[in-house]
Amino acid sequence: MIHKYKLNGYNIVLDVNSGAVHAVDELTYDLLDNVMPPFSPECPENVVKKLSRYYSAEDICSCYEEITQLYGEGLLFSEDDYEKFTKYAVASPVKAMCLLVSQDCNLRCEYCFASTGDFGLGRKLMDLETGKKAIDFLLEKSADRQNLEVDFFGGEPLMNFEVVKGITEYARSKEKEFGKNFRFTITTNGMLLDDAKIDYINKEMSNVVLSIDGRKEVNDRVRARVDGSGSYDRILPAYKKLVEKRGEKEYYVRGTFTKYNLDFADDVFHLYEQGFDQISVEPVVCDSKMPYAITERDLPKIFSEYERLAGKIIAGAKEGKRFNFFHFMLDLDQGPCAIKRLRGCGCGNEYVAVTPDGDIYPCHQFVGIEDWKMGNLNDDSFDESRKDYFAKAHIYSKKECKTCWARFYCSGGCNANNLIYAGDVHSAHKFSCEIEKKRLECAIMLKAVQSEENF
Amino acid sequence: MKHVKTLNKANLKKSAEKGGCGKCQASCQSACKTSCTVANQKCENLSK
Ligand code: SF4
Ligand code: SF4
Ligand code: SF4
């Protein structure tokens, strides 16, 4: 299977199953519409005839030779023979955990998937005891996995920062004994950041995600305080300080774009101009009836906006303005192995979320959906059969993904989105798919530009 | 090649041979978790 498209003056051909990416000339692009395996030694006469209106017979034949050579090398029309690896898609150790240390929030962001912080479950903070039990659970269930990830999430985790510190210290104190290496991350809205918290985060957290939507008017329209006033002026200076003191450690400023800012490329550049170089701005996913919801009708505008953003990134890079846009980051050479790519979501198997009550859910997006609860830390219940169910939710078990050209990059999407918006973990949420595919096309095109222009 | 420029050398098929060890970060494709989508994840299997 191949996927080909034109973008920004490039003709790109992706060989889906080998992952090979080719930039090709017009002739190759057209010829690929007319030939496919099994290949005869010579280019079929009817094809030569058909294309000879536009190209010389000699060129057509030499191009055909290149195509068959690439086919021989397994770089075009390669076979999908990965389904056999799904036998490894079985329950595996839990190695990552999302801790909802605060089921409460000090902002009232209009689009919050957690119902402004409490997941519809009532406002609550996690106590240290529960946090420690969660770490013990992870130490036990992670079996031989060494690298363990703990993400402090909410609500707003800084509203319960003493417990964040307590949990972090407890986990660190167990690393040696259990032969584990904890990696902490925290996602914050920035409202409570002060020097002491910044220093602690920079020391202990291997990644920090700083929420901000971009331009002040865009941010403040949705990311509002309880009294309705905006958050931009409070959080921006705090983020600048945090990033300045952070050194080389990972971070992201991340925003959400909605129907209100379909010109989000300007928000990305706004964040860059504020001094950030690790930027993520992502589409809101919500009920399509919401006033800020993006819908099918917005797709053409969203597609052209991603193209505009890619264009701006190219133009900026030529002037030495470099930054990473999360969704265009793609490593064509050293990305994860094909087996890892069969499943892009570890929920309910390698990854779980824990609430202040000690309830265990497949992930943060499932929190509050009673049917999907997997157990509770306080009575040691944990439904392992659910793990198997999620382990088997790979691209070959999802009808749309099985034949999708983007399957080894998207890896089957978000199970929670699939469930909530498409009705089933195994049904692709088509709207998200369209956006994902467009972003991938842009990301791959950027690679072509980079290899040509050496930046 | 005159008509085709191949941009990458890696081949997914090879990656499968010694892959699947599970040492890498757990991933999440959702918009609300920025830290870890598959496409920009790193392999952490040093023996590969
Ligand atoms: S660490 Fe590398 S080889 Fe192991 S599962 Fe992850 S991507 Fe595959
Ligand atoms: S884009 Fe959609 S169909 Fe394609 S792999 Fe992702 S979820 Fe599946
Ligand atoms: S279900 Fe979605 S949000 Fe949850 S871990 Fe999977 S990809 Fe992430």
Shape of chain B: flat
Mean pLDDT score of chain A: 94
Intertermini distance of chain A: 30 Å
User: Total number of helical segments of chain A?
Assistant: 15
Give Rg of chain A in angstroms: 24 Å
Number of strands of chain A: 15
Bound molecules: iron/sulfur cluster
Please give the oligomerization state of what you see.
Answer: heterodimer
Low-confidence blocks of residues of chain B: none
Class from secondary-structure proportions of chain A: alpha/beta
How far apart, in Å, are the first and last alpha carbons of chain B?
30 Å
Q: Note the main sheet of chain B.
A: none
Number of helices of chain B: 1
Mean pLDDT of chain B: 82
Indicate the proportion of strand residues of chain B: 5-15%
Helicity range of chain B: 10-25%
Measured as a percent range, the helix fraction of chain A is: 25-40%
Structural class of chain B: little secondary structure
Can you tell me about this structure?
The complex is a heterodimer of chains A (455) and B (48). Chain A is an alpha/beta fold and 455 residues long. Chain A has 15 helices and 15 strands. In chain A, the strands form 2 sheets. In chain A, strands 4, 5, 6, 7, 8, 9, 10, 11, 12, 13, 14 and 15 form a 12-stranded mixed beta sheet that branches. In chain A, strand 2 (10-15) and strand 3 form a beta hairpin. In chain A, 47% of the residues are buried. In chain B, 12% of the residues lie in helices and 6% in strands. Chain B is flat and about 45 Å long. Chain B is mostly loops and 48 residues long. The mean pLDDT of chain B is 82. Chain B contains 1 helix and 1 strand; from the N terminus they run E-H. At the A-B interface, strand 3, helix 3, strand 6, strand 7 and strand 9 of A face strand 1 and helix 1 of B. The structure holds iron/sulfur cluster (3 copies). One iron/sulfur cluster sits between chains A (345, 347, 351, 363, 365, 414-416) and B (28-30, 33).
